[in-house]
Amino acid sequence: MPDKLKIALLGCGVVGTQVARLLTEQADDLASRVGTPLELVGIAVRDLSVEREGVDPALLTTDAEALVAGADVVVEVMGGIEPPRALILRAIEHGASVVTANKALLAQDGPTLYAAADAAGVDLYFEAAVAGAIPIVRPVRESLAGDTVRRVLGIVNGTTNYVLDRMATDGLDLDQAVKEAQALGYAEADPTADVEGFDAAAKAAILASLAFHTRVSIDDVQREGITSLTADDVAWAAGTGHVIKLLAIAERNTGDDGTEGIQVRVHPALVPADHPLAGVRGAFNAVFIEAEAAGELMFYGRGAGGAPTASAVLGDVVSVARHRVLGGRGPVESSYADLPVLPAEAARTRYQVRLEVADQPGVLAQVAAVLAEHGVSIEAVRQTPAPDEHVARLLITTHAASERALAGTVEAIAGLDVVRAVVSVLRVEGA
Ligand SMILES: NC(=O)c1ccc[n+]([C@@H]2O[C@H](COP(=O)([O-])OP(=O)(O)OC[C@H]3O[C@@H](n4cnc5c(N)ncnc54)[C@H](O)[C@@H]3O)[C@@H](O)[C@H]2O)c1
Ligand SMILES: N[C@@H](CCO)C(=O)O
Ligand code: NA
């Protein structure tokens, strides 16, 4: 048994500071759990002069490469693609186990890192990369390894969930809610990665790879953010018994030509108010899984923040450290299924389409005819008066239709003389 394990920490920001704190404060407990002491041997940072609360300045270094070379376990919480990618590969080359929270890197180039870890026989763990503190990587990879996952629906971005929640509860418009999220430290000064769905898409790619034992990169994920949503959309959703959530969705599906594959997408969707995901408020995250034998499961908690994310990182550190003490490594990424990612247009969902139309005889029939021509089946139609007496508002809910059929339908409806505006088109999920 090693007399101690040397831990190198790369990055000392929001997450790194908390990882350093927990490693120090809980040193005795961690040593008992692992079976040997964990010694934090250094922390790589950019700027040595920045004061970091609770962090021993003597541990700081700007030479990340040298730090990595002498470590048993490397914890990467720098963020970004380079230098983390090169540093992780170097750590693996030196035989270190790696723990990372870096969803962007894993979603872009995970397979290279997994292959390197396999070749070296070391662990590469990343619980914090998806839904922060929520145990989701380990349950999907290990607890559900004997089951067949059909579908994963996740609220995996806390910032957008906070924004949508504020729009729903207090009628804020998007900009106001984003400003509030920034003031609370949820959203970055540049909120693009969150509001345009890039962060959720990275997590969707990682979740899909794990759930379906295949390789999905962020480029395979169909992505749409929340920036086109209005306070009116959110209010309408409530009026029809739904809440709007930004969902990361990964599901098994069959393509038009009968090919078995998966679909992975991120977009806002109407979720029925009685669905467990509808109750996920504020900046919380949740992942809802439908598996063949297990049925429905939901994992809920904090998806971000220094301490919650550090909790997931430390859990991984203990796991990989235990493996080193016992000899060997933990379960690896399985990627035997080789399921293709199907084209987005073949995805089938229910839709709500809101229109403003001329309030005159035959309008409903014309609109219904377009839907019929495109093979889109209507589930319900609701008409409400508009402030202008010559205009009516129509809310059409469809049965499941393909994205392709729906797009053609909406284009044709928009071209009808009697249609003043297509107000919104939203998918309905989880019904
Ligand atoms: N903050 C969260 O809530 C959260 C949640 C889940 C996952 N993550 C992930 O954790 C990682 C870290 O996030 P964070 O919020 O702590 O970021 P941060 O910006 O607060 O901290 C990053 C740290 O890394 C250092 N760093 C960056 N590049 C460096 C370089 N080239 N050399 C040396 N030091 C360098 C920075 O100086 C900073 O100290 C990211 O991959 C992020 O996606 C964060
Ligand atoms: N920006 C992310 C945090 C970490 O992924 C969120 O709002 O959930
Ligand atoms: Na997690």
TrEMBL record:
NADPH binds at residue 103. It comes from the Bacteria. The active site is at residue 203. Residues 352-430 form the ACT domain. The keyword Oxidoreductase applies. It is an enzyme of class 1 (oxidoreductase). Transmembrane segments: none annotated. Catalyzes the conversion of L-aspartate-beta-semialdehyde (L-Asa) to L-homoserine (L-Hse), the third step in the biosynthesis of threonine and methionine from aspartate. This is Homoserine dehydrogenase. It comes from Cellulomonas rhizosphaerae.
